[in-house]
């Protein structure tokens, strides 16, 4: 990014404005401008809260809820349940009001604190004796007069209400105001107001379904139960207070708590953003801005329930309801009082009321305060702004990593707020908005990088290998052109017996060229697949290195993986050649093979690690990107030694140290290669980690170490004794080290004939490259 020079600041207004405009346009750019406009548009959408946004947010909250439901705790809340078994035992629902009165009396005698009905008794009981007489005019006069003289069932229930503390439920009705024919004045005491008028924020219901007047009059309290699920049909919120026929009313659950704690006045606290909470029973119950609460549910539990039949028929344990706040409701399947819940399973409506009551008592309600929308908008703006400002200058890998880290941190913080504080902070919209910004920036970055790659290909394609050009175009910011010192791992490979192979093609040089091209393609692919750089091809030989031009901290292991892959791929290539030769002969043809068919290709590989100089080497008119240094020469010499030790892959001591534990590596010798005075420990790379962990290899590894120790101690008898056993163990592992065994057998014979003397250091001076 070009910076505005200080000396520009004092120029004339025209120059100053031009410089500022240039700097501004380069820093901001059209991408950031478009992204910021999109961000503002997205924030406006969030304020409008369309259904798709709310659905995603609710789905996230449901996931939170399901991942960690509230733990069940013993609380003085119970449900008298009209369940299927009770209906089977007592009779068809609705039961006579005398039965309901009996339930109230029995619960009161057991010591309940208060009883709330999740049932509305809006019509007279048709099972009352006087009503039966009126409904049957042909009944004998004596029987009719006797029934008429009995008390009304509703009066019996009203008397039972008077003997206890009962809260009758009143249902909201989703009709337009004035549709109901019967209107009765509600006489509940209005709440105290702390702050602005809460009415504009409350859920509003135009009509109400009340109980019979006698029941309403004898009740200690009147509570609303409203049914307003979210758009997807799930009941996530319950209103504690609401506006019914223009008056503020308490829900059934808080009204039950109010009556049980003395029946005092409650208050509503508001601020400019909406409702803060309801002050009830000497505590503030926080709510959302519309007066609703988010219950924190446990899975449905029968421990809350007392079947109505058990209460009526004396099977309930004495004291079961003592001191409890009791709700009366139905869970019978036929009565269809089940609601979809955030836990993903339906639950009886009365149990949802009971759980809300438990939440209030234990202070475990989920919280989504009225300021959370502002917090989420600020978080969304901040996350998106960070992406818009910094993402255009980041590589794809860094952008993805930082984005995952950033968004993961926010989602983790959102879940932490739920886990530890039960606060619901929307994880979806900020992540969705930020992801959209990332996608926009990434698309622009991709198009920009494609343009830069094309420029690099055009600039360097004339003098750098295609593989290196591609790496440059992908990682141009990491490349330093010119010589630099780096820790490299170098690989040299060569074909064993290439002269004999070439002689077999003396009459068909085109076939030899095709064969070598196929062969070198196999080696190249193995190197490139393991992030290596091919330096050059030298006839049948290949030179490659790792950790340049791009950083690769795992360069030694990658080189070893590539070497093992090269050996395996060459074996497969030999097998394919033999198969192709057999196919060419076909059935019935003479079973003799041409020279090119029978000549196997065997490869020797040397690998070494060390400090080298890597960069553009050559003349001013012609140069290559290559590596120089002593480790390069050692790697070349190690490749040559592979033919004498019978091991296809030989490692220098630095490489072996780097990869030990990840590969099956075995020490072979200490040698002084041609052209070097300092001896080098050499090691054979025999297999991958699976072989390294093989008990058979570990036994061979240990025996080989003992053999080498005896060899360096000039204990020739011990060496000769160990070699046959070592040969057997190598054969069991299918490791082709027969030449290695024979070499040491020959050396021991020579050393017996000409003992080296007491000052011998065990170093073998190689005279062959």
UniProtKB/TrEMBL annotation:
Any GO BP annotation: intracellular signal transduction
The UniProt record lists the keyword Membrane: yes
MF GO annotations: adenylate cyclase activity
Domain Guanylate cyclase as annotated: residue spans: 489-639
Keywords per UniProt: Membrane, Transmembrane, Transmembrane helix
Pfam families to which the protein is assigned, alphabetical: CHASE2, Guanylate_cyc
Transmembrane intervals: 27-48, 371-391, 398-417, 429-447
Protein name per Swiss-Prot or TrEMBL: Adenylate/guanylate cyclase domain-containing protein
Organism (species): Roseobacter ponti
